[in-house]
Design goal:
The protein has 442 residues and is of the alpha/beta class. It has three domains: 282 residues, 3-Layer(aba) Sandwich (Rossmann fold), CATH 3.40.50; 75 residues, RNA polymerase II/Efflux pump adaptor protein, barrel-sandwich hybrid domain (OB fold (Dihydrolipoamide Acetyltransferase, E2P), Beta Barrel), CATH 2.40.50; 69 residues, no CATH class. It contains 14 helices and 17 strands. The strands form four sheets. It has a six-stranded mixed beta sheet, sandwiched between helices. A four-stranded antiparallel beta sheet has the order 2-8-7-4, with no helix packed on it.
Amino acid sequence: MLKTFKLGGIHPRENKLSAGEKIKALPIPEQVVIPLSQHIGAPATPVVQKGDTVKTGQLIAQAAGFVSANIHSSVSGTVTAIDYVTDASGLSKLAITIKVEEDEWIPEIDKNNKFLPNITLSKEEIIKAIANAGIVGMGGATFPTQVKLTPPPGNKAEFLIINGVECEPYLTSDHQVMLEKAEEIIVGIQSLMKAIDAKKAIIGIENNKEDAIEHFQQIANRVLGIEICPLKIQYPQGGEKQLIQATIGRSVASGALPISVGAVVQNIGTAFAVYEAVMKHKPLFERVVTVTGKSVKSPGNYLCRIGTPISQLIAAAGGLPDDTSKVIGGGPMMGRSMINIDSPITKGTSGVLIINEKEAARKTARNCIRCGKCVSVCTMGLEPYLLEKLAVTNMLESLEIEKVMDCIECGSCSYTCPAARPLLDYIRLGKGRTATMIRNRK
């Protein structure tokens, strides 16, 4: 029997329209805008000035604290501005703008396509290489990877769990990376295992990716300590706590971190980026992004330089369809609508989903019918109908007591609600206000 997590979950239509589409390299744009906050934590601090000439892979902003990440130029050219720009959500963020002139890489990067299987760095050198490369969680959370690899005193990593689930409908970038870069990913996983002294790694892959499961099983058979774990298709299995429970059967307590149960979780894309950093000395300045949607002419998986305008990515997939209603960054369940498609690709951009008018139409919300479906599908054991009511009435202390901060914002409650109530919208609002209250109290 296929493994999965125990509590809640749903199975939305998969709509993997770009599955099997080989990765295509997007042309380098004429200009890139590289935000200094592409990760959880403190924004990076610029180390270049307007007028400076930079090369591809050069450090342009340095991590500004323990929880922060380096930022590198994705192109070579001239810095034309260091100023605030509007991101995809409409927020103002400091960014470095570079006018592209050539594509000259820093000499430290090994541009040879030859596969390198032998890890020679020590665990300390691996963590340093990852930190220097500015690698973050590429499944969307964007937590600085080197921080995860340095657990608090008294905690020991028994398992490295690799997230190859990609449970969000429509998205296929991780799936395609698994098919095209499996050997490199395995070396990246071995590097991560060495960094945290873990003897076992488990790669969780949902059963709708049978080709990836078979491909990895053939390779992993030759590697000691790496297991492939086929999983039942169940959203949101890509959540850290859900994936840990599905693969090793351990439950992470409310407010606790995965390391509390001996687990460190990393994304497939992150493992590949680790390979490139450790073996090729290549910083994280490009990633694979899915562009998709039912009206999109050419759904696909594109290798993009960080800072490339999202509009250019959409153009490569055939342009914005006439019946477009909204553009979402990420998948339809946890992604957020964009208000600026000229905003740049960042380290956390896993997909660009173009929703047509028919799909985007919301049903009229009706009164709650007390069916309890939202409770039954909540993977965190919460009561979404109650959290919505408390958020509407701004009862922040009650929201904290009811553990709104445990909500992973998966959207399962809204998806299953027969009364079409915008549960997640209100819960997100209440969660944000509650988080501010907690920070102010501290």
